[in-house]
Amino acid sequence: MKVLVTGGTGFVGQAVLAQLHAAGHAARVLARRPTSRRSQALANRWAVEWAAGDVLEPPSLGPALAGIDAVIHLVGIISEVGRNTFDNAHRVATENIVCAAETAGVRRYVHMSALGTRPDAVSRYHQTKWMAEEFVRASRLAWTVFRPSLIYGPGDHFVNLFAQLSRWSPVLPILGTGRARLQPVGVEAVGIAFVRALSEPQAVGLTCDLCGPTPLTFEEVVDTILASLGRRRFKLRLPMRLMRVPAAVLEYLMPRLLGQAPPLNQDQLVMLEEDNVGNPQPAQQLFDLPVASFRSGLDRLWSLGARPSA
């Protein structure tokens, strides 16, 4: 099968490319800068083909979809900067790639959403993810929608952030009460699910959670990271009402002054106050996914060479 991957240079995208290669599929990656050093490194590693294009520029999508059998759409953001707003990155980008796929005669489509996405969501992140899902479900494509919880693995932006913080700081922040629950899932399992869904008839028309076997509170997640590294650190609770001011300031200033997405925004605070849990069983059973506790997954991650220096 020849598969177009959007978001293929990202954290999850690289895991998907690895699984496509292992399964014998041919991958084409949509990229704004296909000649960049990072793109070339991925091309050499996974024998991928590159197509110059942008999900926000519909005319570029037709050539990228020529000869394609399936699309894996992974594009998403966690902070806004410039034209990369939640609405553009989630709703508009999805509408563009779905319409282009329909026009090109592509049949199979696998979509990255997020756990917690729902019609009455408070965060703009989840609102726009929901609108994207609805557009996919209304399409003529043979679709599958995946909703991952917190994804961890080499190069992720959460586990590695706290691991690095614990390297030099005697104190780690716990935002809010620390009692909101997460269900961390390894990026390898996510990549396997996306690729196996391509050839699984029962996955067509399925909206499916991707999450680890056990819910953990935010504080338990931090404690597990520390335990896996053999470190002890003090934890400082930061009330959400105090964090909203710096989050709003960063959200306003960083894109305007530095052209960069802020490390913390108000949407993230909203989501950190909500449970982010689901049912892992349907995906595990249908796609025969590896099941690992968060602690064992971290131990394996560090054993593969991703462990930060003490």
List the helices and strands and how they pair.
Elements (H helix, E strand, L loop, with lengths): L1 E5 L4 H13 L2 E6 L5 H10 L2 E4 L8 H5 L4 E4 L12 H19 L3 E5 L11 H14 L4 E7 L2 E2 L6 H10 L2 E5 L5 E2 L2 E2 H11 L8 E5 L5 E2 H12 L4 E5 L1 H19 L7 H7 L8 H7 L6 H13 L4
Parallel strand pairs: 1-2, 1-4, 2-3, 4-5, 5-6, 6-11, 7-10, 8-13
Antiparallel strand pairs: 9-12
Helix pairs in contact: 1-7, 4-5, 6-8, 8-12
Task: Describe the overall structure.
- The structure is a single chain.
- With 310 residues, this protein is α/β, with parallel strands linked by helices.
- The protein has a domain at 2-155 and 184-212 and 277-291: Rossmann fold (3-Layer(aba) Sandwich), CATH 3.40.50.720.
- The protein contains twelve helices and 13 strands.
- It has helices at 11-23, 37-46, 61-65, 86-104, 124-137, 159-168, 187-197, 218-229, 240-258, 266-272, 281-287, 294-306, and strands at residues 2-6, 26-31, 49-52, 70-73, 108-112, 142-148, 151-152, 171-175, 181-182, 185-186, 206-210, 216-217, 234-238.
- The strands form four sheets. The chain has a seven-stranded parallel beta sheet with strand order 3-2-1-4-5-6-11, with helices on both faces.
- Strand 5 (108-112), helix 5 (124-137) and strand 6 form a beta-alpha-beta unit.
- The termini are far apart.
- The relative contact order is 0.14.
CATH class wording of the domain at 2-155 and 184-212 and 277-291: Alpha Beta
Give the low-pLDDT segments.
none
CATH domain fold name of the domain at 2-155 and 184-212 and 277-291:
Rossmann fold
Shape assignment: globular
Spatial strand arrangement across the major sheet: 3-2-1-4-5-6-11
Instruction: Write down the secondary-structure element order.
Output: EHEHEHEHEHEEHEEEHEEHEHHHH
Largest sheet: 7 strands, parallel
Mean pLDDT reading: 93
| Structure class | alpha/beta
